Amino acid sequence: MSFMMKLPAALAASVAAATMMLAGAAAAKDFRLGLITPPNHIWTQAAENFGTDLSDATDGAHSVTVFPAQQLGSEAEMMQQLQTGALDMAFLTVAEVSNRVPDFGAFYAPYMAQDIAHAGRILQSDLALRMLEDLPAKAGVVGIGYGMAGLRQIVSKGEVTSAADLEGKKLRITPFKPILDFYNLLGAAPTPMPLPAVYDALANGQVNAIDMDAELIWKLKYFEQADTVVVSNHMMFPMVGLVSAKVWQGLSEEERATITELMKKRLDECIATYIVKDREWLDQVRGTDTAFIDVGPEFFGDVPAQWDEIWSEQSSVLSEMRDTAAASAE
Fold it and tell me: Could you cite one Gene Ontology molecular function of this protein (predicted)?
């Protein structure tokens, strides 16, 4: 006979209720969420808002502590922490995911997105969402949804009037293969570098050009160290909201549903914000003394086609991604 069966009914009910309360208290968790962006960045603000939402929705049972600006390490290090369960959640560039799941490199196909709004539609397509289903098995993480930064531009010391002016330049990139291939094809000297080091590296000549989005060109004042901003819009730059697959396994279905709903809401808002703000940030930089040139695919010659040739062998979804982009173009 069990202990509960030996107790009077009223007392047994009280013990059961207390046991449930203790179980609930034990399940309460302060999730740790890491990212590389500074505190004033849209991604960081989205993460903070998600944490507030989760605390409100669970009456404080769950909370989120956000660690911006690489406090928990590089994206590669945070991905490893997610895989082991040492880190609960992260907002990482899709670039880092593509280092482990090459299919995601298709998102960086040059000039796939006509503009920032088109980039948002690609990220919310059925294909993009379906790709997240592969992440638990291939990367040890659960993909909740996508955010993004603005389209990519080039900030350069020295005058730039043609792609030939970028040949040989030490050009800072996010460390991942799709963008490395793009700039190698262009003849530049792509130099992987973490975001916090970029301003000083540009100032002291460690690099003499950078690949960057309008938000950080403006907010982190990279334009102050530049002579030319090449407004090329040559690539989209997605972000993905991730939860450790090991952490996910320990959550109830209700907890998973709540996290998914609230995180995806903030990721979708992130996309909507960039659609509005990306042009505004560029306009603010245009108001400075930095020279601007506006270019299209022709500026890069055969490089976009050569990139597609390389990546059609590495990403099984590149052709389908191009078709998806074409179908969602306006």
Answer: carbohydrate binding
**Rounded Cα gap, residues 92 and 74, in angstroms:** 10
Q: Which residues are within 8 A (CB) of 167 and not within 5 positions of it... i.e. 6 or more apart? A: 186, 187, 188
73-108 in b/e form (b: 16+ CB < 10 A) is: bebeebbebbbeeebbbbbbbbbbbbbebbbbbbbb
- Average pLDDT score, the chain: 92
Of the two residues 55 and 330, the one the predictor is more confident about is 55
In percent, the amount of the chain with pLDDT more than 90 equals: 90
Once rounded to an integer, what is the mean pLDDT over residues 173-192? 96
For residue 265, being part of any structural domain is answered with yes
Q: Is 22 inside any structural domain? A: no
b/e map 35-60, b = 16+ CB within 10 Å: bbbbeebbbbbbbbbbbebbeeebee
Total of domains in the chain: 1
Residue 195's CATH number = 3.40.190.170
The parent domain of residue 270 ranges over: 29-327
Are 174 and 107 in contact by the 8 Å Cβ rule? The answer is no
For residue range 114-167, what is the model confidence (pLDDT) as tens digits? 999 999 999 999 999 999 999 999 999 999 999 999 999 999 999 999 999 999
- Phi then psi for residue 60, to 5 deg, are 85, 0
Q: Is residue 6 part of a domain?
A: no
Q: Are 291 and 227 in contact (CB under 8 A)?
A: yes
> Is 20 inside a domain boundary?
no
Which strands form 228-231's sheet, in the order they lie side by side? Answer: 189-192, 170-173, 209-213, 152-156, 228-231, 291-294
